[in-house]
């Protein structure tokens, strides 16, 4: 083990106080800041002398003293001063190393006070970059726990294919495909977004967020409905066509709790609050049931259903509704039936009572002819 020669302090305790201040303000562990400064001094040495393999740096955690040592071999005549030191210089400058001889390794002060201007600038840049990286790393650690959660984003820049937003002090991206159809966002807008992914990019941690994910609906209701947050009401399924309509199936094992009423809230306040966050997207809340017939019938709300017949083999539900409920059950451009099928997992065929009667008569006549 090479013995280190003594080195005079290069910094004062004011540095430690400053680092503690940065640590508190930026929420960065002090040890990370120390390591960044030590790495910067090694980089500065390389900038000045072209070599760093034999260099180490340490910062005293109390006094703020920075020590940079170069590990050198004791030789009779120096041919490469970056890795060699003469025996005569060792005896003259470092009396504490007097017992060392030719061929021994010693660690001697690198003389950071003699670093050139470029080396000092390099050290400063590395330190500042290190602090920024440490801050981004801390933000990333916090945001990693926020995946699949809802956060508030502030729109900073709008481009044709995406919007750049600020989420928890870092940059996020809201891609056009993750915006609700027809939604126009402007710089300065505050939006509730669902965190899809947190990752590192060339510019630091970046967050991908969404306004179309069904998880956004779930998390918004968890905020608005205490019974969902405490587990008394469960969200069993969500089917969504973002910006237009959502169906959500809820359930409670507590007979004293109406899960639909809890989500709708007094005077529809809770569901209206969620809808307002989604640019007035319509939200249907229905009661989940373990009975597929009941579940399919409820999923077609607000239409009234007369009967449901199931075909387990091809997972199809044949539904009959009153004549005046047919268009309501199907919905505009088939949306109500489409969302009900997505919500329940059943293919749904809807007919009016008169259509069903006509089919029954036709089948009877066919059987009679046969």
Key terms for this structure?
28% strand; 370 residues; GMP Synthetase, Chain A, domain 3; 38% helix; rod-shaped; N Utilization Substance Protein A, Chain:P, domain 4
Summarize this entry quickly.
With 370 residues, the protein is an alpha/beta fold.
Give an overview in words:
- Helix 9 (292-299) runs antiparallel to helix 11 (335-344).
- Residues 8-12 have low confidence and may be disordered.
- The termini are far apart.
- The protein folds into four domains: 3-141, 2-Layer Sandwich (N Utilization Substance Protein A, Chain:P, domain 4); 146-210, Nucleic acid-binding proteins (OB fold (Dihydrolipoamide Acetyltransferase, E2P), Beta Barrel), CATH 2.40.50; 213-288, GMP Synthetase, Chain A, domain 3 (2-Layer Sandwich); 302-370, GMP Synthetase, Chain A, domain 3.
- The protein is 38% helix and 28% strand.
- The protein has 370 residues and is an alpha/beta fold.
- The strands form four sheets. Strands 1, 2, 3, 4 and 5 form a five-stranded mixed beta sheet that branches.
- Strand 9 and strand 10 (204-210) form a beta hairpin.
- The protein is built from twelve helices and 16 strands.
- It has helices at 13-26, 30-49, 87-93, 117-144, 214-224, 226-229, 259-264, 269-277, 292-299, 326-330, 335-344, 353-369; strands spanning 3-4, 55-59, 66-75, 84-86, 105-109, 150-159, 162-167, 170-175, 190-201, 204-210, 234-241, 245-251, 282-287, 307-311, 316-321, 347-352.
